[in-house]
Amino acid sequence: MVFRFNLKRFLISIAIPLVVGGISAFITRGDMDLYSRINQPPLSPPTWLFPLAWTILYTLMGISLYLVGSSNASHSDKRRAYIFFGIQLFLNFIWSPIFFVGEQYLLAFIVLVLMWIFTLGMILSFYKISKPAGLLQIPYLLWLTFAGYLNFAIYLLN
Protein backbone atom coordinates (compact mmCIF):
# COMPACT_ATOMS: atom_id res chain seq x y z
CA MET A 1 0.00 0.00 0.00
CA VAL A 2 1.29 3.46 -0.91
CA PHE A 3 0.40 6.19 1.58
CA ARG A 4 -0.44 9.50 -0.05
CA PHE A 5 -0.37 12.54 2.15
CA ASN A 6 -3.25 14.95 1.59
CA LEU A 7 -2.41 18.32 3.17
CA LYS A 8 -5.96 19.69 2.90
CA ARG A 9 -7.49 16.63 4.59
CA PHE A 10 -4.72 16.71 7.22
CA LEU A 11 -5.39 20.37 8.09
CA ILE A 12 -9.15 19.82 8.21
CA SER A 13 -8.66 16.80 10.47
CA ILE A 14 -6.58 18.86 12.88
CA ALA A 15 -8.91 21.85 12.66
CA ILE A 16 -12.00 19.86 13.70
CA PRO A 17 -10.98 19.14 17.32
CA LEU A 18 -9.11 22.46 17.65
CA VAL A 19 -12.19 24.43 16.55
CA VAL A 20 -14.53 22.44 18.80
CA GLY A 21 -12.18 22.98 21.75
CA GLY A 22 -11.79 26.64 20.84
CA ILE A 23 -15.55 27.22 20.76
CA SER A 24 -15.95 25.51 24.12
CA ALA A 25 -13.15 27.66 25.56
CA PHE A 26 -14.77 30.78 24.07
CA ILE A 27 -18.08 29.92 25.75
CA THR A 28 -16.36 29.55 29.12
CA ARG A 29 -13.80 32.36 28.75
CA GLY A 30 -15.38 34.61 31.39
CA ASP A 31 -15.74 31.80 33.88
CA MET A 32 -12.25 30.28 33.71
CA ASP A 33 -11.09 32.31 36.72
CA LEU A 34 -13.33 30.00 38.75
CA TYR A 35 -10.46 27.50 38.80
CA SER A 36 -8.31 29.86 40.86
CA ARG A 37 -11.15 30.66 43.28
CA ILE A 38 -12.26 27.13 44.20
CA ASN A 39 -10.72 24.71 46.66
CA GLN A 40 -8.29 22.53 44.70
CA PRO A 41 -6.94 19.09 45.48
CA PRO A 42 -3.27 18.15 45.72
CA LEU A 43 -1.51 17.88 42.35
CA SER A 44 -3.66 20.61 40.78
CA PRO A 45 -1.65 22.01 37.88
CA PRO A 46 -1.25 25.73 37.23
CA THR A 47 -3.91 27.37 35.08
CA TRP A 48 -1.52 28.04 32.16
CA LEU A 49 -0.99 24.30 31.67
CA PHE A 50 -4.57 23.56 30.58
CA PRO A 51 -4.63 25.44 27.25
CA LEU A 52 -1.20 24.05 26.37
CA ALA A 53 -2.18 20.46 27.20
CA TRP A 54 -5.50 20.71 25.35
CA THR A 55 -3.89 22.20 22.26
CA ILE A 56 -1.47 19.27 22.12
CA LEU A 57 -4.24 16.73 22.77
CA TYR A 58 -6.56 18.24 20.15
CA THR A 59 -3.71 18.24 17.63
CA LEU A 60 -3.01 14.56 18.35
CA MET A 61 -6.74 13.89 17.97
CA GLY A 62 -6.66 15.51 14.55
CA ILE A 63 -3.61 13.54 13.46
CA SER A 64 -5.33 10.32 14.51
CA LEU A 65 -8.49 11.35 12.70
CA TYR A 66 -6.46 11.93 9.56
CA LEU A 67 -4.76 8.53 9.83
CA VAL A 68 -8.12 6.80 10.23
CA GLY A 69 -9.69 8.76 7.38
CA SER A 70 -6.75 8.07 5.08
CA SER A 71 -6.70 4.36 5.77
CA ASN A 72 -8.05 1.59 3.58
CA ALA A 73 -10.23 0.32 6.42
CA SER A 74 -13.76 -0.83 5.75
CA HIS A 75 -16.60 1.67 5.75
CA SER A 76 -18.12 0.05 8.83
CA ASP A 77 -14.84 0.20 10.79
CA LYS A 78 -14.37 3.86 9.89
CA ARG A 79 -17.99 4.62 10.72
CA ARG A 80 -17.61 3.04 14.18
CA ALA A 81 -14.40 5.02 14.76
CA TYR A 82 -16.06 8.27 13.67
CA ILE A 83 -19.03 7.65 15.96
CA PHE A 84 -16.76 7.16 18.98
CA PHE A 85 -14.71 10.19 17.93
CA GLY A 86 -17.81 12.37 17.54
CA ILE A 87 -19.40 11.35 20.82
CA GLN A 88 -16.24 11.85 22.87
CA LEU A 89 -15.64 15.22 21.17
CA PHE A 90 -19.22 16.30 21.91
CA LEU A 91 -18.80 15.29 25.56
CA ASN A 92 -15.48 17.14 25.59
CA PHE A 93 -17.27 20.21 24.20
CA ILE A 94 -20.00 20.27 26.84
CA TRP A 95 -17.76 19.50 29.83
CA SER A 96 -16.27 23.00 30.15
CA PRO A 97 -19.58 24.91 30.16
CA ILE A 98 -21.02 22.41 32.67
CA PHE A 99 -17.99 22.74 34.95
CA PHE A 100 -17.05 26.41 34.59
CA VAL A 101 -20.28 28.18 33.65
CA GLY A 102 -22.78 25.95 35.44
CA GLU A 103 -20.46 25.02 38.32
CA GLN A 104 -22.11 21.60 38.26
CA TYR A 105 -19.11 19.58 39.42
CA LEU A 106 -20.86 16.25 39.88
CA LEU A 107 -22.58 16.45 36.49
CA ALA A 108 -19.27 17.46 34.93
CA PHE A 109 -17.65 14.41 36.53
CA ILE A 110 -20.36 12.14 35.10
CA VAL A 111 -19.80 13.67 31.66
CA LEU A 112 -16.06 13.13 32.10
CA VAL A 113 -16.57 9.46 32.97
CA LEU A 114 -18.68 9.04 29.83
CA MET A 115 -16.00 10.89 27.85
CA TRP A 116 -13.38 8.48 29.23
CA ILE A 117 -15.47 5.47 28.18
CA PHE A 118 -16.09 6.81 24.67
CA THR A 119 -12.44 7.82 24.36
CA LEU A 120 -11.41 4.27 25.20
CA GLY A 121 -13.83 3.08 22.51
CA MET A 122 -12.32 5.57 20.10
CA ILE A 123 -8.80 4.38 20.91
CA LEU A 124 -9.73 0.74 20.35
CA SER A 125 -11.56 1.46 17.10
CA PHE A 126 -8.74 3.73 15.87
CA TYR A 127 -6.14 1.10 16.82
CA LYS A 128 -7.99 -1.53 14.80
CA ILE A 129 -7.69 0.73 11.75
CA SER A 130 -4.28 2.31 12.41
CA LYS A 131 -2.04 1.39 15.33
CA PRO A 132 -0.39 4.85 15.38
CA ALA A 133 -3.83 6.54 15.38
CA GLY A 134 -4.83 4.55 18.46
CA LEU A 135 -1.53 4.98 20.26
CA LEU A 136 -1.55 8.76 19.72
CA GLN A 137 -4.67 8.89 21.91
CA ILE A 138 -3.09 7.30 24.99
CA PRO A 139 -1.97 10.72 26.35
CA TYR A 140 -5.57 11.93 25.99
CA LEU A 141 -6.90 9.00 28.01
CA LEU A 142 -4.24 9.58 30.67
CA TRP A 143 -5.12 13.29 30.81
CA LEU A 144 -8.82 12.44 31.14
CA THR A 145 -7.97 10.08 33.99
CA PHE A 146 -6.09 12.87 35.76
CA ALA A 147 -8.90 15.32 34.95
CA GLY A 148 -11.34 12.85 36.50
CA TYR A 149 -9.34 12.89 39.72
CA LEU A 150 -9.28 16.69 39.72
CA ASN A 151 -12.97 17.02 38.85
CA PHE A 152 -14.14 14.54 41.50
CA ALA A 153 -11.87 16.03 44.16
CA ILE A 154 -13.15 19.52 43.33
CA TYR A 155 -16.69 18.21 43.68
CA LEU A 156 -15.84 16.84 47.14
CA LEU A 157 -13.96 19.97 48.25
CA ASN A 158 -16.49 22.50 47.05
Mind explaining what this structure looks like?
Helices cover 78% and strands 0% of the residues. With 158 residues, the chain is mainly α. Helix 1 packs antiparallel against helix 3, helix 4 packs antiparallel against helix 5 and helix 5 runs antiparallel to helix 7 (138-157). The mean pLDDT is 95.
List keywords for this structure.
mainly alpha; 158 residues; elongated; Ferritin; 7 helices; 0% strand
Layout of strands and helices, then pairs:
Layout: H1 7-28, H2 34-37, H3 49-69, H4 75-101, H5 105-129, H6 131-135, H7 138-157
CATH-level-2 architecture:
Up-down Bundle
- Total strand segments: 0
Biggest beta sheet attributes: none
Radius of gyration: 16 Å
Overall geometry: elongated
Topology as a string of helices (H) and strands (E): HHHHHHH
Number of structural domains? 1
How far is it from the N-terminal to the C-terminal residue, by CA? 55 Å
CATH fold field value: Ferritin
- Please tally the helical runs, counting DSSP H or I stretches of 4 or more residues: 7
Q: Identify low-pLDDT runs.
A: none
Question: What's this model, at a glance?
Answer:
The chain is mainly alpha-helical and 158 residues long. Helices cover 78% and strands 0% of the residues. The protein has a single domain (7-24, 46-157), classed as Ferritin (Up-down Bundle), CATH 1.20.1260.
